[in-house]
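Incident log, entry 3
Record: Cation transporter (323 residues)
Problem: checksum mismatch between cached and fresh output.
Input:
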Amino acid sequence: MNDSNKSHHNHNHSHAISGQSHSKRLWWALGLTSSFLLIEIIGGLLTQSLALLSDAAHMFTDTAALAIALAAIQIAKRPADQKRTFGYHRFEILAAAFNAILLFIVAFYIVYEAWLRIQQPAQIQSMGMLGIAVIGLLVNLLAMYLLVGGQKDSLNVKGAYLEVLSDALGSLGVIVGALIIMVTGWLWVDSMIAVAIGFWVLPRTWVLLRDSLNILLEGVPANVSLDKISADLQQLDGVAEVHDLHVWALTSGKSSLTAHLVVPSVDTQHVLESARTLLAQRHQLHHITLQCERYRCAMADANTHQFLQTNQSASQAGHGHSH
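Fresh output:
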């Protein structure tokens, strides 16, 4: 590392945790879903409807998802300490990943149960099935209304919203199935609708799990382009090169950036302020750490070696850099 001209810039910008502003709505949604869950389980057992019981399974995951989301929000409020210097924000992402895995398990279980039911159809009380499903749809629509505002801001809330959305579709499917059974007597329709509900949930669950894992693996946020950031920084007066550029998200809507700027001759403080303003206004990045250096440092050479000579061993190259 060159010692001739080094400077560090740290800018801390506090954000409200994205899920916290929606905690009251989550509490209301939890109350609605947990109350109806008991009704739907009893109704499914009495009517012998697999579609209704599968919808109750979704409602159970809704309740669990909402409870986990609320718990994660409470934990995420804890301040940073000596062991968790970034705080506890990642609990919201862990909750989202857990809810995605839970949805996968439920979806596959529903498909399995439907296959067994197709082989041995059971008598179904379609009228009771219809009445309970209508109430369930209304409950889910109200819960969706409570959560829709927060699902774009927080993966944690998005996980809970997807749970409720899938259950609303399940209730709608049960209604359609009940009407078909009442008119035609085709009992197999109940199982086919349960399968359709399961397969509808799977791709949306994968998106939630993928986004959660990207954050947990320190991946670049989907709305961030490293090439664009690097190009914009190199357009600043005095910046000759940008290297060791990293962008990651601590939680939903809370991204961080670190980078080295090669600044041969101009005032580094001016460059740092210009870079901070550019990153905040053009790329919505607020937690930034920049290091200015007069010459290209060894870290840049190491990164070049890493990307261009990945097939050579470290001993052959003679140098390296580990993160």
